[in-house]
């Protein structure tokens, strides 16, 4: 069943969009990521303009993350205090990112920026996560099941403005979490992502949070940052397609509940290596699209006044 998307100005199969939303919802519940790193490139692949894909996917991430975080709240695996500190940085970063996005959109360079950003960030993060997950699985097979001491003191513990995060069992400075939130907010605005693919590793390896708390806390922060990002995009550059968002949301909410249940059945190392493999797969497809010769060497588009 084909539906016409008024803002994107293209016709797309409605069941295809529902399926994409459901897939991202499953990832949200399993890995604690908003799923934007996957949904935005997939929207590129089905013909949605990058500017519309970025703004609208942020809207879908809100719904799938709400569905996922409710399940984690019931299990008490959300560090609300840490989530609020991450959120403070995230809102500031989102505001900065939207301004950068609008400037580049006026210059006609936003499509290239979005695609290149995905290739660079997904390649680096996916590669590092994949290697670390393989090492963790090897250590588990050898019987050394706790390769990293989460509370090992490093430079993070020497910073000022310390706060106690009881749910995570941490007593650290608020500066590193705020910087993590700031960077995720910028990425959310420019790339249409929740930022979980950066936030989750940072919370585990930089802040030293337990894996069982990371997923729910990440989703909590993602909800508000992506909602703020969507609002800014909708009011400044008018690229949020509500019909597209609705179809993605319907699939995403159902998928998140399924993903949360599946995630509980798998080990942390298995979850991380699956997420890394997905990140690298999407990165490879985007890189090929940038490098291969297009079927049409140029296209005509209206020039902004």
TrEMBL record:
<feature type="transmembrane region" description="Helical">
    <location>
        <begin position="12"/>
        <end position="39"/>
    </location>
</feature>
<feature type="transmembrane region" description="Helical">
    <location>
        <begin position="180"/>
        <end position="206"/>
    </location>
</feature>
<keyword id="KW-1003">Cell membrane</keyword>
<feature type="transmembrane region" description="Helical">
    <location>
        <begin position="213"/>
        <end position="232"/>
    </location>
</feature>
<dbReference type="Pfam" id="PF01925">
    <property type="entry name" value="TauE"/>
</dbReference>
<keyword id="KW-0472">Membrane</keyword>
<dbReference type="GO" id="GO:0005886">
    <property type="term" value="C:plasma membrane"/>
</dbReference>
<dbReference type="InterPro" id="IPR051598">
    <property type="entry name" value="TSUP/Inactive_protease-like"/>
</dbReference>
<feature type="transmembrane region" description="Helical">
    <location>
        <begin position="83"/>
        <end position="104"/>
    </location>
</feature>
<comment type="similarity">
    <text>Belongs to the 4-toluene sulfonate uptake permease (TSUP) (TC 2.A.102) family.</text>
</comment>
<keyword id="KW-1133">Transmembrane helix</keyword>
<dbReference type="InterPro" id="IPR002781">
    <property type="entry name" value="TM_pro_TauE-like"/>
</dbReference>
<feature type="transmembrane region" description="Helical">
    <location>
        <begin position="238"/>
        <end position="259"/>
    </location>
</feature>
<feature type="transmembrane region" description="Helical">
    <location>
        <begin position="116"/>
        <end position="134"/>
    </location>
</feature>
<keyword id="KW-0812">Transmembrane</keyword>
<protein>
    <recommendedName>
        <fullName>Probable membrane transporter protein</fullName>
    </recommendedName>
</protein>
């Amino acid at each position: 069943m084909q539906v016409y998307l008024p803002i994107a100005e293209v016709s797309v199969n409605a069941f295809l969009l529902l399926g994409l939303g459901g897939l991202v919802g499953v990832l949200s519940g399993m890995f604690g990521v908003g799923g934007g790193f996957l949904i935005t490139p997939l929207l590129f692949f089905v013909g949605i303009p990058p500017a519309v894909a970025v703004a609208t996917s942020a809207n879908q991430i809100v719904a799938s993350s709400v569905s996922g975080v409710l399940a984690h709240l019931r299990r008490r695996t959300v560090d609300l205090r840490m989530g609020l500190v991450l959120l403070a940085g995230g809102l500031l970063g989102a505001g900065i990112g939207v301004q950068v996005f609008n400037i580049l959109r006026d210059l006609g360079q936003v499509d290239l920026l979005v695609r290149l950003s995905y290739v660079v960030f997904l390649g680096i993060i996916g590669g590092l996560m994949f290697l670390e997950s393989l090492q963790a699985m090897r250590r588990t097979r050898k019987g050394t099941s706790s390769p990293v001491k989460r509370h090992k003191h490093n430079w993070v513990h020497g910073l000022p403005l310390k706060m106690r995060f009881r749910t995570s069992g941490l007593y650290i400075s608020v500066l590193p979490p705020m910087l993590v939130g700031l960077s995720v907010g910028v990425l959310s605005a420019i790339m249409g992502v929740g930022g979980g693919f950066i936030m989750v590793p940072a919370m585990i390896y930089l802040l030293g949070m337990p894996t069982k708390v990371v997923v729910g806390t990440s989703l909590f922060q993602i909800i508000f940052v992506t909602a703020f990002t969507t609002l800014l995009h909708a009011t400044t550059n008018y690229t949020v397609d509500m019909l597209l968002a609705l179809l993605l949301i319907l699939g995403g909410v159902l998928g998140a509940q399924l993903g949360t249940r599946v995630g509980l059945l798998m080990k942390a190392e298995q979850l991380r290596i699956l997420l890394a493999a997905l990140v690298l797969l999407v990165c490879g497809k985007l890189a090929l699209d940038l490098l291969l010769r297009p079927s049409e060497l140029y296209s005509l588009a209206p020039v902004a006044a």
